[in-house]
Amino acid sequence: MVRSRPLPVDPLAEAKRQWIAHGWSDAADGMAVVTSVMRAQQLLLARVDSALKPFALSFARYEVLRLLAFSRAGRLPLSSVVARLQVHATTVTSTADRLVRDGLIVREPHPHDGRAALLALTDEGRDLVERATTALNADVFAAPGISSADAAELVAIVARLRKGAGDFTEPRPLPEPL
């Protein structure tokens, strides 16, 4: 939960001080990294949830819609959605069930694999994800709370952590700005 007033002291800095005081110096930096990233995730997710609330979307539902909207034909195999969102198939299936129920996507038979299904965006789903993206861009992504330089550094640091954890093999280079 986001506090209405800032605390007079950083509780994560205090936690690190306590870690060191209790003889866990070798783990103090790691504890500070993990808890800092987790707290930052809470803060950012609260902003995202607030921006998506008027659209009755969770971030998981938004991600599926956005991924389908980015695809050339507005449809992808369920297995591709699972791989690209890096979540368990059960989670995507459950999310897809709710999106189908709400008329935002449909399930279609895979044209080459009778065992597989395609998830396809409906016109209503496309309209909703475009409006939700406009809100997210305005309310969250355009001003994430840190400078552009800090944002680039943070993304690079987290990418190294993710790569080291086996999340991907090598990031593709970003296009140069025009």
TrEMBL record:
Residues 30-163 form the HTH marR-type domain. GO terms for biological process: response to stress. It comes from Microbacterium saperdae. The keyword Transcription applies. Keywords: DNA-binding, Transcription, Transcription regulation. Gene3D superfamilies: Winged helix-like DNA-binding domain superfamily/Winged helix DNA-binding domain. This is DNA-binding MarR family transcriptional regulator. GO terms for molecular function: DNA binding; DNA-binding transcription factor activity.
